[in-house]
Amino acid sequence: MHVDTAITSRKSVRRFLTTPVDRATIMHILQIASRAPSGSNIQPWKVHVVAGAAKDQLCQRLLNAVDLGKSDPPEYHYYPQNWFEPYLERRRRCGFGLYATLGIGREDKAKREAQARRNFHFFDAPIGLFITMDRRLEAGSFMDCGMFIQSIMLAARGQGLHTCPQAAFAWHHTLIRDELKLDESSLLLCGIALGYEDTQAPENGFITERESAENFTTFHGV
């Protein structure tokens, strides 16, 4: 797969087939992704792979917590504390577009919550990945890990697989740390669902729009 195709075909898949993904394929993807750049080559990322019974147990604990309204204070702020334009409108268009694709009305709180709940079993994907880094590192390592996460998603496309990066898990870091026996220095960044796309699912037909490069680029002396 050409790199352009991998990038443009990557999307957040929110319903997967249960078709297994073997360990060798997962390791191949992670080995390719390990070539992601990092400042001074410190490679700050750690990956925790869950599948089978271990994934089922973790997901059940997460779903129980969600159903009881339990969550953790975030260890980092993914989104701004006070939204402003143009970011607020982009976020709204994304959310409204997804729910419209699913036939969920803006006022249908129960169905919106049910869809959000699906995050916590990785949208049926057979493989879940958790990305962590040492909390003693600085903001540059967030950028490094972001490039690593993107590399995972592109390498997955090279294997005919799809992904969904999921920040939602960061609000349940205590439970996940306990289940995976992570030490206190581990900062949970996100999860990633990995598997084969269910091409019949309407939500997978929702493709977010992107700004034209002309709108976010300024040339200086070129």
TrEMBL record:
Key words of the record: Flavoprotein, FMN, Oxidoreductase
Taxonomic superkingdom: Bacteria
InterPro entries per UniProt: Nitroreductase, Nitroreductase-like
Co-factor(s): FMN
Family statement: Belongs to the nitroreductase family.
Ubl conjugation listed as a keyword: no
Alphabetized CDD domains for the sequence: PnbA_NfnB-like
Residues in Nitroreductase domain copies: 7-196
Pfam families in the record: Nitroreductase
Originating organism: Vreelandella neptunia
Protein known as: Nitroreductase
